[in-house]
Design goal:
By secondary structure, the protein is an all-alpha fold. 59% of the residues lie in helices and 2% in strands. It has a two-stranded antiparallel ribbon. Strand 1 and strand 2 form a beta hairpin. Helix 5 runs antiparallel to helix 10, helix 6 runs antiparallel to helix 7 and helix 9 packs antiparallel against helix 10. The longest helix has 20 residues. InterPro entries: GntR_C, TF_FadR/GntR_C, Tscrpt_reg_HTH_GntR, WH-like_DNA-bd_sf, WH_DNA-bd_sf. It holds the Pfam family GntR. Keywords: DNA-binding, Transcription, Transcription regulation.
Length: 259
């Protein structure tokens, strides 16, 4: 007869974690909106039947997660921050920066992932009223700004943001969108400087980039997922997204998202 297995000691969640979990659920479920105040400490003490230190610790947990900001002083309180894609991009940027990841690595990741977003967009049955009007407006605005490098570069990046944000898959929009935000922040900091416009200073290059975006648009319009994927991949491999005027061997800087 085999010996009985030793009992596993289950870790009991701390009281503060239980309180934080309840408040977190209210934020994530929409019961509390962005900018709302959490209930006052006295109300929470009564609701949960815990001590003041437990409430303070719960607030600390939520503040560390970026879900609230505690206002100290006579007024006091805690302001709610609903998570958004910018938060995800910044946290991802911090991790990538801590690992010394280069801009070249970032753009290679986008080259791999964004074609899937283009394919999703091409397969949207409602693409004619969702993603296509936004891409069309962007391309038209880009052509109108063809002689203004700074404006054109911003619009060229916005094309990719619109594509990813409206591809129709929320998970991909968030994950790939975080990479897009990081890359766009680097472009805003570096390529928008007139001294480093690089080949974007050449009108012919800007026109070629606009034509590449038009090719992507047409593939999505026709519902051709494979062509849309191929057009984006070629755009990143040897096309417009490789034509910039700054050094991509440098490390990603998360703070560019807050510049």
């Amino acid at each position: 007869m085999s010996a009985p297995l030793p009992k596993r000691r289950l870790r009991q969640p701390r009281v503060a974690e239980i309180v934080a979990s309840s408040l977190r659920s209210r934020i994530l479920s929409g019961q509390l909106g962005d900018g709302d105040l959490l209930p006052k400490q006295e109300e929470l003490l009564s609701e949960f039947g815990v001590s003041p230190p437990a409430i303070r610790e719960a607030f600390r947990i939520l503040e560390t997660e970026g879900l609230i900001t505690v206002i100290r002083g006579n007024v006091g309180g805690a302001v709610v921050h609903v998570p958004h894609s910018g938060t995800a991009a910044y946290m991802l940027g911090l991790v990538l920066e801590s690992r010394g990841v280069s801009l070249a690595d970032l753009i290679d990741g986008m080259r791999t992932l964004e074609p899937a977003c283009a394919a999703e967009a091409a397969q949207r049955p409602d693409r004619g009223t969702t993603v296509l009007p936004r891409l069309r407006a962007n391309i038209d605005a880009s052509m109108a700004a063809i002689d203004d490098p700074k404006t054109f570069i911003s619009l060229a990046r916005a094309f990719h943001t619109e594509l990813v944000n409206h591809c129709g898959n929320e998970t991909m929009s968030l994950v790939v969108g975080a990479l897009e935000k990081l890359w766009t922040a680097q472009v805003d900091l570096l390529a928008l400087n007139p001294s480093v416009h690089g080949t974007f200073s050449d009108r012919a290059v800007r026109l070629s980039l606009a034509h590449e975006h038009e090719r992507i648009y047409r593939a999505i319009e026709e519902g051709d997922a494979q062509s849309a994927e191929r057009a984006i991949r070629e755009h990143y491999s040897g096309g417009g997204e490789r034509r910039h005027g700054f050094d991509t061997s440098i490390t990603i800087k998360a703070d560019t998202l807050r510049a």
